[in-house]
Amino acid sequence: MQRFTVPALLGILLLSLVSLSYYEMIDLYIQSVIMFIGINIILSASLNIVNGYMGEFACGHAAFMAIGAYVTSVLNILLFTKDKFFGPALLPPEMALYFFPLTLLAGALVAALAGSLVAIPSFKTRGDYLAIITIAANFIVTSTIINVDAIGGARGFMGMKKIIYAMEDVVELPWMLIWVILSTFFTVWLIRRYVSSTYGKGIIAIHQDEVAAEIMSVNTNQMKLVAFMVSSGLAGLAGGLFAHILGYINPGSFGILKSTECLVMVYLGGMGSLSGSVLSAILFTLLLEGLRFVIPQINTLMHWMHLLPDTYQVSQVWKWVIIPLILVLVMQFRPEGIMGNKELSDIFPRLKKFYKFK
Amino acid sequence: MFDSIIQNIFNGLQWGSFYSLIALGYTLVYGVLTLINFAHGDIFMVGAYIAFFVATFFLKAASGLPGWVVLTLTLPLTMILTACVGVTLERIAYRPLRRKGANRLYVVITALMCGLILENGNLALLGASRKSFPELVDKVIYTTGAVSMTNLKIAVILSAILVFCLLQFIVTRTKIGMAMRAISYDKFAVPLMGIPIDTIIVFTFILGSSMAGLAGLLYSMSYPILDPYMGALIGWKAFIAAVVGGIGDIRGAFFGGFLLGFVEILVVAFFPSTFRDLIAFSILLLILVYKPTGLFGIAKTTKI
Amino acid sequence: MKRTLSCVGVCLLAVLMCSPCAWGKTIKIGFNIPLTGDIPKVGEESKFAAEMLREDINGAGGLEIGGEKYTLEFIYEDNESKAESAVSAALKLIERDQVLAIVGPNSSKQAVPGGQVCDDNRTPMISPWSTNPDTTKDRPWVFRAAFLDPFQGPVAVDFAMKKFNAKKSAVLFALANDYSKGLAEIFKADFEKKNGTGSVVAFESYGDKDQDFSAQLTKIVAAKPDFIFLPNNYNEVALIVKQAHDLGWKGPFMGADAWGNSELMTLCGDDCIGHYFSTHYAAAGATGATQEFIERYQKKYGYEPADVAALTWDATRIVLKGLQGMGKVTGKVRKDRKNLREAIAGIAEVDGITGKMKFDEQGDPIKCAVVVRISEKGEFVFTESVCP
């Protein structure tokens, strides 16, 4: 019985969130925060495969997110809506509900293929040279998108809201929330299965010692290829969801800054810790949104206590000083991230009863 | 056509000089600590702001001073103050982590965060207005045919070369340079030889950050508009330049910087400029695919 | 230790709880502006302009709607100059703060998705600065205060052809900036239509946060155009003009509304003198309300306001006018929002500080553009007014 505790809990979580938002018990702002948390979980957990478990230093995760976002959006627009560039809809809009997961998958697949292009140089290049390849890939992807006018160029690409409306016309449910939560569960499940399988142990072996792993008959090239593809494919999935939550994408959203955010979440959570990635993604997003509320309070408090001159207001600018400062402090006290390379079940051994984590 | 090629070579030399100066700072720290100091681009930005404040201070305090006197006063002060910023970062953020034996990637992330703090702290404290750097030296434009040069551009190129020679001399010919190379060779055996490892690291940060300060001063003289985010992108690109040259090698950073400068300028000159980043980075990727350790990097043999 | 912690926690909670229960009758308006990110200056000016307006109204006892006085509460939300943050900021303002209307986002990158959110959630939004047609297109709840690119491009073309006798032109634009790119393309199409294909002899671009334009300018100078069109942000303009002069360019420049910032002259200095640009309003020689606004702003914050400040002022005034036109505030947010939208759409004409404007059916203003010349004293002097 205990084996089913976790799936049951997750199911209840999904159901309660969906019904809460269906009956408008939680407002759209909270919903959007939940969705961004989900997307950040997918991003940080997927980057953790390469940067955490495999120990490489890839810093162009946003590039794959961009590819997934654009491929999914273009496919959906092409199939289900009338667009001035792509012509009339190929399929009736009611089909969007059934095809949406497929288009998400297609975006993920293309992103995975793009990931394999980055993986091939990684057979030879190592360490910080690989970092450059990924950064350059990020620049190349965004500047390619800017140059393609069919998908909007620098103006961005929009119209994805129509897909959401088409889905809601069939069954009235908060569909994006459902898709995001399902994809998050899927990602965490997939990564957990992948890294705890015998096959996936290979990537941890590469992290420990690549030459030794090679001698122990681990096919390191294949391992790297698969790890990169899974990682970038999941980033593409996150991108597809991201595009449909916003209803608008722009190459500027997938710059080096977005990649930096992904990196921060991975290292904050701890290299090679899946629960760490999940936790840090939640914390990071909540911090980002929470400071919106806290900073005005700090401002009034400090003025109330006469710590500041009347002319100076503590504005939201301080948010991006406070967040890095918190992270630097976390690093000073826990130099291995929140979880290190442990999982939740290592810290609370009783959890092991409820789920297996090899 | 011929004129514009010559002109573009000069343009490339000037633009490459800045990449080189910043890449040299990256490479020095990397060579000694194998730490990618992502805050370096922002230290460069802080250097530019320090130069701005020092120069305006002298211009205001002693208004009769001619520009070149102000410049000679500003130059060492900027370098010293920027070096202080670099050393402070090392002391409060990197050293404790190093002592605790954290994985070096965590130090890299800390550096990234320190860069963000510098950028946004600047924004929060100084406000969003951009600063305009005062003109210290009268600009002289030399024109021959269709080729134009300014005295400033020549000064920039010369100082990049000078800095390179100086660093090369320090690293290869002096005792402290020998110690730096020794640390990069073996971090664990070196303290046993009686070399004060922390002193050497601080010295490295002083060298690297003062070069960033110099670059900041020269940059704000050539492009006299300062904003808090000016260091971010040029920092990333200089890092790319350093790696393409072969990170950890002084020559690599120097030539890598000029290579990136030239590639960016020449791509614009011969292709539609909308494809600049696309083509420039593809060329760099190709170089890395054929020379996986950069132009001057030496492949390390891994032992089990 | 634990006790002090809990004490602090309780205090913080108390502060958090107390703040929303403000007193008296207030009307909340949200501002979705970039206080950090690429263009913090734009956010700052928007905020200052709005703050000035709020102090005016509240100082006079509040806004009178249907015989009752309401104090205004402005909530400034940072969108970090990012699309996704603009969405969450808009949602936060709509759902948490229950604002009646949103002013902003400023640049189109955030205004397009922000407008989508406001339109979906039936909250009136007015973007002061966005020039992308998509921001308001087919969105009944979204308005704007700036004119559109397709209008501004031909203004520049006609003026340059008349003033400089231009037959050949060159364009240098920012590739990653949709404002700059869009305007450059419209300019090119219109110029070539009027002067034959190939009359735009150089059409060059640069990337995000670039500061060296020497290669592009070398190409442009070698092509010998009659003038250079620069639809760029003022900080880049200052660099471009200086570098073009270093490369031996002596001809004229023509710019667009993004030049119109007080900082242009402090950054650019003598190099910019004598050039022209099209904009929303001419700061020098402004009269009446415009002049008063500029002088007060300058006195209060120490610098001359840019067009974005003036446009935010106008945008906010439009919202206030809409509020007054509503008749009365019911207190039910959804209903008030709907009434407000109707009221704004029904405004016949606004006499703003950036000129008279009225809205077309898309929610875009029909208003005049002015061409200004940068005088020897560094002032933006009115030269010509072009109306649609």
From TrEMBL, chain A:
The keyword ATP-binding does not apply. Keywords: Cell membrane, Membrane, Transmembrane, Transmembrane helix. InterPro entries: ABC_transp_permease (IPR001851), LivM-like (IPR043428). The chain crosses the membrane at residues 30-50, 57-78, 98-120, 129-153, 173-191, 225-246, 266-295. It is found in: Cell membrane. It comes from the Bacteria. The keyword Thylakoid does not apply. Pfam families: BPD_transp_2 (PF02653). GO terms for molecular function: branched-chain amino acid transmembrane transporter activity. It is a multi-pass membrane protein. Its main location: membrane. Signal peptide: none annotated. GO terms for cellular component: plasma membrane. PANTHER family: HIGH-AFFINITY BRANCHED-CHAIN AMINO ACID TRANSPORT PROTEIN BRAE, HIGH-AFFINITY BRANCHED-CHAIN AMINO ACID TRANSPORT SYSTEM PERMEASE. This is Branched-chain amino acid ABC transporter permea se. It comes from Desulfonema ishimotonii. The lineage of its organism: Bacteria, Pseudomonadati, Thermodesulfobacteriota, Desulfobacteria, Desulfobacterales.
From TrEMBL, chain B:
The keyword Lipid biosynthesis does not apply. GO terms for molecular function: L-isoleucine transmembrane transporter activity; L-leucine transmembrane transporter activity; L-phenylalanine transmembrane transporter activity; L-valine transmembrane transporter activity. It is a multi-pass membrane protein. One of its GO terms (cellular component) is plasma membrane. GO terms for biological process: D-alanine transmembrane transport; L-alanine transport; L-isoleucine import across plasma membrane. InterPro entries: ABC_transp_permease (IPR001851), BCAA_transport_permease (IPR052157). Pfam families: BPD_transp_2. It is found in: Cell membrane. Its main location: membrane. Keywords: Amino-acid transport, Cell inner membrane, Cell membrane, Membrane, Transmembrane, Transmembrane helix, Transport. The keyword Transmembrane applies. The chain crosses the membrane at residues 18-36, 43-62, 68-93, 105-128, 140-167, 188-208, 228-247, 254-272, 278-299. Belongs to the binding-protein-dependent transport system permease family. LivHM subfamily. This is Branched-chain amino acid ABC transporter permea se. It comes from Desulfonema ishimotonii.
From TrEMBL, chain C:
InterPro entries: BCAA_transport (IPR051010), Leu-bd (IPR028081), Peripla_BP_I (IPR028082). Residues 111-133 are annotated as: Disordered. The keyword Lyase does not apply. It comes from the Bacteria. Keywords: Signal. SUPFAM superfamilies: Periplasmic binding protein-like I. Residues 1-24 form the signal peptide. Residues 26-378 form the Leucine-binding protein domain. CDD domains: PBP1_ABC_LivK_ligand_binding-like. Belongs to the leucine-binding protein family. This is Branched-chain amino acid ABC transporter substr ate-binding protein. It comes from Desulfonema ishimotonii.
